[in-house]
Batch of 3 targets.
Target 1
Amino acid sequence: MSRAEPGAVLEARGAALGYAPGVPALQELELEVRPGERVAVLGPNGGGKTTLFRGLLGELRPLSGELLVHARLAVVPQTERSRLDFPVSARDVALMGAVGRLPWWRRPGGAEREAAEAALARVGLAERIHDTFGDLSGGQRQRVLVARALVQDAPLMLLDEPFTGLDAASAERLERLLVELAGEGRALLIATHDVDQARGWDRVLCLNGRQVAYGTPAETLVRPVLEATYGGDIVDVDCPEHGHERAIMPAHHHHHH
Amino acid sequence: MLASVLSWLTDPWADALSRRALLEVVLLGLAGGALGVWVLFYELAYPAESLAHALLPGLVLAALVGFPLLLGGAAGLLVAALAVALAGRIEGLGRDTAVAVVVTGLFGLGVLLALSPDTPAGLQGLLFGDVLGVSDTDLALAGGLVLLLLVALRALHTRLLVVGFERAGAAALGVRAGAVDAALLVLLALTILVAVQGLGNLLVVAVLIGPSSAARLLTRRIGPLLVVSAAVAVLAGVAGIYASYHAQTAAGASIALALVAAYGLAALVRPLVRSV
């Protein structure tokens, strides 16, 4: 792990990303992410979250500026992207995290299987290693994909809306796991629509075709920034647990909460 | 009674032609059954059928000039692949249509060549296979194919799973989807090339599709799927030879029907074994 590494795992210096020359889909990226930070990536659909992730994966080269990834990177995709009819068990999926480190002619062996089982145990699925992936609940599938990223043992993890579709218990469990992973010195970029949840994390990156803001939750989760991020399309929601404060939510997403 | 059952079972093995045929279908069943599982999950049934049909002109030309069928088939496959790639670039035609145009064109050309007055008889063998006429070379090739597939499918196993499971995420896991696709297509082309000698141009796809579809009804684990599919293919192939031996039916067609019948049988017993 990269706990001792003082530098940033991810840097953007005036980066612009896009799918055609001269047509940036996301620009003015200027940020640094350090080990152990949980970074919420907020923005409307089409705001540039997917574009940013593709840039970090190296699938898109910056049109201008610099986007530097200094650490190995693992992705936790949305579970809807994987095929539920595919004949794989939870352990098979976790094992996929090991394949990138092996030469093409080698199959994962005992050491890799142990790593996969340990990762599944960490996400609370020790009893489910032989279950067919498609038979698991949405929350369990999400945790299997987190286990796969753990097997990759990457210092930087991208999570694509990991809380979407989870029930309260699964969400709480995943939230605790993310705290642990950050505690180990991993940097986590978490795409989310849940502004309230992002308040508990270390940094917030607001995207809407460009970088609207990057900073602590206190600096970024304020009305002007959120209006610029979601285009004024936000609503106030009474939130008794915050006392007199009112949480601000993107209008078309607050039902997720 | 027992003696007659035994002789019913052993007679085909005493006959030299049938014994070779049995060996050939066992080998092709192992290869086609295992590879067929990946053909199924990579949705390659249509490309597989297209390749098998499109290599006919190559086979016919090889038969005409007395070249080994294997070489002719290989050349036919290359021409077919190039033609499909070119036709696929035609604006507004669409991939599936382009494949259909090329395949029917090449298949028609093959039949035209085969039915010309100067051609020695033998079109039937190329179309429907001649599993009772397999040579030692055919058997050695089939054996080599089984070995190659065993090694390759084992080595590529996890990568095949990664790309099939989540193509878009393969790169993030360090797997190049294009390379895995290419490897699978090469294995498929080789299997068709070898199997087409025994099972024929029209029926070879049955060994790739029937057993794997049947196995898919019975289990949802990749390991058991590969084993069940190969076993079903071997059993159906052997059953086809027995039918052909005892009822004097055409061998290739009997095998193809047995392979498809295995799917029907699997559908019937599915409620009993679905928990596997």
Target 2
Amino acid sequence: MIAVGSAGAPRVRVALREATLSSGVRVIVHENRQSPIVVVRVGLQASSSQDLPATAGLASLVGSGLIRGTTTRTFAEINATIDAAGMSLGASAGRHQTTVSARCLSEDLALALDLVTDLIRNPTFPDDEVGLLLGQARNGLRQADNDTGSVAQRHFRERCYPEGHPYRLRAHGYLHTVDAIGAPDLREFHAQKYSPAGAVIVVSGDVAFDQVVGALEARFGTWSGRSIAGGTVPGAPAPEPSRHDATLEGKTQADLILGVPCIARDHPDFYALRIANLVFGRLGMMGRLGETVREAMGLAYGISSDLDANVLAGPWSVRAGVNPKNVEAALDAIGTELTKLRVEGVTEEEFERACRFSIGSMALHLETNDGVAGTVSDMVAHALGLDYLDRYPLIIDALTLDEVNAAARTHIPAYDRVVVSIAGPTA
Amino acid sequence: MTTDVTGRMPVIETRLANGLTLLTQEARGAPIATFWVWYRVGSRNEVPGHTGASHWVEHMLFKGTDRFPKGVADKSVAGCGGIRNGMTWLDYTTYYETVPSEHIALAVAIEADRMENARFLDAEVASERGVVISEREGSENQPGYALYEAVTSAAYRLHSYGRPVVGFKHDLRTMSRDDLHGFYRRHYVPGNAVAVAIGDFDGEAVRELVDREFGAIRAGEPAIYEPPEEPAQEGERRVTVRRPGPVPLFSCVYHVPAADHPDTPAIWMLGAVLGAGRSSRLYVNLVATGLASSAGAGSSETLDPHLFRVSATVRADVEPARVEEAALDVVARIARDGVADEELGKVRRQFRAGHVFGTEGVTSQARSLGSSEMAGSWRRAETYLEDLDRVTTEDVRRACATYLVEKNRTVGWFLPEGGAR
């Protein structure tokens, strides 16, 4: 039994049990009999980090293509089955894993497991269905290339990360790369990258541990496949500070993003830096940034900061949507807050509030089966251990104000060192 | 005390002496509680020149009071691990906090206080003018929003549902502090509000808590505003938005009755037959055929007659007219041939599963209960599955043949300019 909470914080009990299938696949189960609902999440090692620059978007297309037909079911038959049961079933490729997930009424669990297994093990990527999928993907990319936030993000990453770094590429790819991808590419990627090696199945909901493990053994126990060799990832040296302005016609608002590559999830400063980031651009009405740029100056509806600490060092960034005539004023105000954070640090009061939020909000994250499954999948992806929910409050309680301010000074860049990317209409 | 099929405790409705309605429901699944206050005021209550007033007032209620000066409520809720927000829609404005259940008293205190003590300082109104304009401009960036606003406006001649919830930019530039404060005073009284509390608490204790915090608030007289009745549409209307953009977007809207109309359950079933899931009629005929990259349909739960929407994102290599023809043909076939028993059975199952999934979180439960109450009665959120069970295939065909007809529709297109198809 694992408990979340500390003195003064609510205790949430999330009992996790683990088994390993004959194929080596890990299974982690949370029995929750509150509602007749089950959520299944399968995490696989295949990911967009394995995309090459010339085929960016391939992992994402493979993830989306799993459902397009299997050796025993057509896409239309899968859709009819899903809708008839009122369940949701989907797959998507992230930076470091592909997730196949289902949510169903508990009476439909066997059917949901059949479908999840079929998608992962037996997809056929039929030519006609892949053709339709590619057409939909191109439409989505055209829309992304017309979206100020997406365009600003694309140029930001291209200036933060060097050629060959997986975080430089857009996970969904680009029109020219998707144009070069066909059904044989999807089949080959699946054959090479989908494997029980490193696969983890998380189940949360109205299930009995022994029964669900038995059901998964029957479906995944004989699955075989080779380990996926990790490629060499180039380092991400601190980028040269720069500013890029992209013009998009037909827009009213500009989206801006500024930041730098920061730290990985396993960096010792992660928790301290996350507290600093909460104070800076997230907590309450979007932290200090919200208090100045939005509340005091009225320049933006949306402004926040984000620490994307992943398997590799993801970016720390600030994003805002502002009228083009207010871009310079918004950048100045963000710069002032950056300097203040680095020089003065966060206050004792801010520090304590952010720590209380970090612990207290766990109860909200773990309220639903989706929340539990997502949290546990994240714990597994970052090798945090199944006792993490128990240790988490202790980790936060052990932080000091000095550690938080030291982390902010070390990892939050001076304003003259950031990469700035703006996309919008001309002022 | 009995529970329903999902194991939930019953909803208890009570009323304070000053007119505040309170709905409480115990939910012991997780140590969390959510507290909402719903006001019967939204863009429906706005007159030309003051569009966006409800939404802007919602923003002003985050600007502090004497008891909770600006930022204090945000920080207090965050400090206990909770979340809070506000939302404005056609028929309502609502505020909520979801917190670890031992902190529900904080949520109740914040909501009671801002029902009558929001400050509306001149400087705060001035800075928030920039924020709400920025929110509108963020929406304007999206081609889909531009089409939504244009087609909704074209569908209405008189009723306030035709105007945007966020407001027109001209009105956001010209409304004064006194306009907003007067709007707040007229609509934010207990008799115009419904509080909803769901969570891991003792219901009686929460009812006493709400009575303590809200009981002293003056009753006031809720402002009565009945929007002009929208005359029946007598022929197709068309509207086109042209600007630089990525792909054509199609939206076709039809006037349909209010939530309490007997045809509403059949209209909801029709929406699901057309647009719910990848086995739906629109997906099969528009997306699976390569004409569109997405398609959908459905209507909202509203106090007055509103719109049923059929929409699609056109594939860049497809002539837009083909999508309109295909979508309207899908609708016409249901009006002519009806739907199969199995199709209706599938849709019932989708609604039932969706209902069970919706009972997992207290926040989503409170939202469902409150939004139904704002459109007539919270009991609809509890009984709609039974209403849907009574719908027949002929009911669905008749609803389609009655409402989804040429003279009742407004067809909207977003067409990219500059060859950026």
Target 3
Amino acid sequence: MLRGRAFKFGDNISTDDITPGRWFHLRSNLPELAKHLLEDVNPDFVSQVKPGDFIVAGRNFGLGSSREHAAVIIKMAGVSAIVAKSVARIFFRNAINVGLPVLICDSDKIEDGDELEVDLKGGKVKNVTTGSELTSGKFPEVMLSIIDEGGLIPYIKKHKDFDIS
Amino acid sequence: MGKTLAEKILSQNSGSDVRAGDIVIAKVDLAFLQDGTAPLALRQLAASGLEQISNPKRLVFFIDHASPSPTRELSNDHALVRDFAAKNGAQLCDIGEGICHQIVVESYANPGEVIVGADSHTVTAGALGAFATGMGSSDVAMAIALGRTWLRVPESFKVVVGGSFKEGVYAKDLSLHLIGVIGADGANYKALEFCGPTIDNMNMSGRFTLANMTVEAGAKVGLFPSDDSTRRYLESRGRGDRFHPLGPDPDADYEQIIEIDVTALEPTVSMPHAVDNVALAKDLKGEKIQQVFIGTCTNGRLEDMAIVAKMLKGRKRHPATRLIIAPASREVLMAAMNAGYITDFLEAGATVLPPGCGPCVGIHQGVLGDGERCLSTANRNFRGRMGNPQSFIYLGSPATAAATAIAGEITDPRELL
């Protein structure tokens, strides 16, 4: 069970919002790059987020570039999962691949600052502040296996190949 | 029930009969990475313990995003990539060669192939009938080691295009219009499959533009049939032997059918800060523009350069509007030079950049100032995309861009034809 506070974002948060292109030269220095996470959308986010907290977004979170650094630095900031109405395709795969869980549900029922409890296995998001509970959509089996292993690299280290039979 | 193009390619690739929603392990025919995504991929590859590269002849590294390098950190990233390519016998396209997606279509992609690239605009090669899709560094790292990747077979939207473009209206206008109709996430996880008489008559340059932009509607892949235009293009590139006709079955099952008649289209512009925020160029008259950028994997081809040269010839850029032009590849630059276009650009007051991504990604070569507005022929206008969150990006066709550079404000190119 994951527990933390919700940091609320709107629709269409792009990878340029998450990790702006002007910090391109820091991509091989992830701790430095992570200091700029989401700074153009919420300049206080990096200083306020605590390990275990959640990014709660609207539609199409992570649209745009394939830069996996976006998912990596969200995880480095301590965010335990993304809760959104929908997530752009490449970002979704990247998040799962770096061991950052994503839950798809009606995030309108969550306000900034709400306390959440997330049951990843059951796909449940409980809003402790309001008492409401949301259910996440289902993932393909292969993604669940990758999540179980903590990401694609540990998955391949263990299985040596894609094992989806 | 017949198959969509996506179902057909992934069935042939995996040697099984697959349908939308199925998961396949696909053989990867071509994998590529660029300087922004390769260093992380190489670190992930090292972490995985997999050391062998499955097919170095079909693994290409591109140094196109920060090219030539503007900083010491990026020079070191470039060195890492060059060193890995040399040690492993992989292909390297170094600075000055051009943008990955342009070189992939010029020199590598073929109909029916599965292509993965660590860049979202990998979808460009769908114009040649390849299942080409963008992924992150970890996915592509595993694909280059194993020679395989997992894919969910996408549902397809059929985009049927009819009618004839009016003068001054191009594939880019169709693309922006289409994204306005579908929305920035309207095709999330889906394949967009193009067909219809207008597509049959469209040259490959227009098809590349359309395929390139499909990711801006969220699509996993943008597919075109492999037909006579494809054959002629491949023959012109010395790959005629790789041509085979390929199309969807007539009774394929589509999740949605979108019909567009281009005859009614007018020059179209995406307004800040979303690609689906579209308007007509004529309705934005008076909007002052400080910088025009022509190039990118969307519109940096010779056909685009020809349109721009024709409009700029004998004219000057507006004194308050900077004009930056970056041909998409070395070949495009050489051909544009031989055709006299580069002279036309320089005489009009343009700054010509070396082949590469240029200012599109916000690293260098034309970062915008606070409050400045740019009209670009690129594919994205997200806030901060061109290096400054306090600036504003409009997207349009090369003709709209050239007309805007001359007038100093957003201008319908038909005014200057």
